[in-house]
Amino acid sequence: MSAGHLTLRAESTISNGVTAYDMLEKAITVIEANALNASKVDWPAERELLGAADLKRLPAQEAYGSISKILAALEDRHSSVRSPESTSAYRAGAVATRAIESRSMGCIAYLAVPGLRGTDPAASRAFSNELCDTTASLARAAPKGWIIDLRANTGGNMWPMINGLRSFLGSGDVGGLRDREGATSPWQARSSDACSVDLSRSPVAVLIGPGTASSGEAVAVAFRARPGTRFFGQSSAGLATSNRSFDLPDGGALSVTSAAFLDRSGAAYPQGIAPENVVAGDQEVIDAALNWLRSLP
């Protein structure tokens, strides 16, 4: 990458003592040290930016364009940078991208799990508990199998989704992460009284598609290699990677792709998750899942 992509606008004013130099120096250090695809970037060239004229006299916001271009050079399609306002809003709440949907379909139970934007602990717990309560309510009818619909799950905060599906995922390792050095770390669904029903042996049809992205793909990966599970629909978005958040000096934040998701068998999905049954069409996918579940002994 060329070092000549910094755009400087001298008419801006510095506030809170944070300069564009502070921002860019922190961003370069963090991204180089943590990004999964850090080797794709010409770091000596990027560090040349820190010698740009007047950089220490320009306000923090002047660095955002350059930071975005460095993140784009990683070619992971997942890393991003947030402004202070966006960072504050993200941390102050946790809002589902749409309502949780559930219904009984004869001997089959249907549960659509949306994404969750934000990290507020109380709101995150409320989302997990709603998923658990919805599952428990449907389980009272003792369905023969389950459809978990992730087609509209565009991601966000993965843990409330994983924790809210613990009834299906069980108490063991349900997935993991692999960083650029090859080091791995497992993840598990957190125990909760709200998710006390055990459905870890129940047959599950998982519905995925291009709208299944980021943390939505984390949920899908948690179901991969699970016994009694089959995937229907179309391939996911191809963002099955984990992002870490790093604070910037002005109150903004970097979201840096630092690891690949692994399923419980150790497989990664750099091109996205491909279903065993490729099916197009909204109702056609559901019908295919229903037919498979009904065919089971």
Provide a quick synopsis of the model:
This protein has 297 residues and is of the alpha/beta class.
What are the SSEs and their pairings?
Elements: H1 20-34, H2 43-48, H3 64-73, E1 80-82, H4 84-92, E2 94-96, E3 101-105, E4 108-112, E5 116-118, H5 121-139, E6 145-149, H6 158-164, H7 166-169, E7 173-179, E8 184-188, E9 204-208, H8 215-223, E10 229-233, E11 241-247, E12 253-262, E13 277-278, H9 282-295
Parallel strand pairs: 4-6, 6-9, 9-10, 10-13
Antiparallel strand pairs: 1-12, 2-5, 3-4, 7-8, 7-12, 11-12
Helix pairs in contact: 1-3, 5-6
Model description:
31% of the residues lie in helices and 22% in strands. It is of the alpha/beta class. The chain has a domain at 95-242 and 257-295: 2-enoyl-CoA Hydratase, Chain A, domain 1, CATH 3.90.226. The strands form three sheets. A six-stranded mixed beta sheet has the order 3-4-6-9-10-13, sandwiched between helices. Strands 1, 7, 8, 11 and 12 form a five-stranded antiparallel beta sheet that branches. Strands 2-5 form a two-stranded antiparallel sheet. Strand 9 (204-208), helix 8 (215-223) and strand 10 (229-233) form a beta-alpha-beta unit. Helix 1 (20-34) packs parallel to helix 3 and helix 5 (121-139) runs parallel beside helix 6. The longest helix has 19 residues, at 121-139. It is elongated and about 70 Å long. Residues 1-12 have low confidence and may be disordered.
